[in-house]
Write a structure and sequence with these properties.
Layout: E1 10-17, E2 20-27, E3 36-40, H1 54-64, E4 67-72, H2 83-97, E5 105-110, H3 112-127, E6 133-137, H4 149-152, H5 162-173, E7 196-201, H6 207-219, E8 224-229, H7 244-266
Parallel strand pairs: 3-4, 3-5, 5-6, 6-7, 7-8
Antiparallel strand pairs: 1-2, 2-4
Helix pairs in contact: 2-3
């Protein structure tokens, strides 16, 4: 994945954020007030990296006009909770200190990173300031691994499974209980959270996780949108721009960022 080229008209800049490696993907001609996406990659908290996501990050940057901060957070099992979340929080704070207002920041991620994006929002609700929007793609947000779709979608989903989840969850949790809200955001208090877009494929074992996150957000009066894409596999968005379903998902993300941040700027 690290060998894939950047999207045309983009560049990738490396940063050291208090020991956290970050790759910033951005349009070469980005606006001075461009949105900033703090992005947590997937990989079950155990694999992948900012480098592996560099090409995808550049396509997101081009599609959204945003500066995409790919967080190379510490991985399990060597680093258990809250290491990964702490690294995402550190990058979010660094973006704020650099002069970017919270009204221009989006928390985003996929799979385990979708869970980290949700956890980052919950953390900021307590500590402040909170990003203006959250985008969770195929999010893993319940580490109790109890969803029915682990079984009902087992044959359809070839990228994630109950067995993988049951191996990855304890590696990340350490001594933390799986229903802790900052590891399983469906158990969190979402009151006051910003608008949220959740995308998931109907062929995913994490389909129920997405539905549960949407339900708890709505119950807390959050402006949350869930889009279930028919027959799509886990994190199909990363196939952008090769497949029309991935293009549709990324275009939805871009429009959500544009409209949500326009509202945040006007408040």
């Amino acid at each position: 994945m690290a060998q894939m080229p950047l999207a045309a008209g983009t560049e990738a800049i490396e940063h050291d954020v208090d020991g956290v490696f970050v790759i910033e993907c951005r349009p070469i001609d980005h606006a001075a007030d461009a949105p900033v996406i703090v992005y947590a990659h997937g990989g079950g908290f155990r694999i992948a990296s900012a480098l592996a996501y560099r090409a995808y990050g550049s396509h997101l940057a081009r599609a959204t006009g945003a500066r995409v901060m790919l967080v190379d957070y510490r991985l399990a099992p060597e680093h258990v909770f809250p290491a990964a979340l702490d690294d995402c929080v550190a990058v979010h704070r660094w973006v704020l200190v650099s002069g970017v207002p919270a009204s221009r920041i989006v928390a985003m991620g996929d799979s385990a990173g979708g869970g980290l994006a949700a956890s980052l929002v919950l953390h900021t609700l307590a500590e402040g300031p909170t990003p203006a929007a959250a985008i969770c793609c195929s999010p893993w947000v319940d580490l109790t691994v109890s969803a029915a779709t682990y079984d009902s979608r087992a044959e359809a989903d070839r990228l994630f499974s109950r067995t993988q989840a049951e191996e990855a969850a304890p590696a990340y949790l350490g001594t933390t209980m799986p229903d802790h809200p900052l590891v399983s955001p469906i158990f969190g208090d979402w009151r006051g959270a910003p608008p949220m877009l959740i995308q998931v494929g109907d062929a995913e074992v994490l389909l129920d996780d997405a539905h549960r996150l949407h339900e708890v957000a709505l119950a807390s009066d959050v402006d949350a949108t869930l889009h279930v894409y028919p027959e799509m596999p886990h994190i199909w968005q990363m196939s952008y721009p090769a497949f029309p379903e991935a293009v549709a998902a990324v275009e939805e993300i871009a429009e959500f960022i544009r409209t949500t941040l326009a509202t945040a700027d006007s408040e």
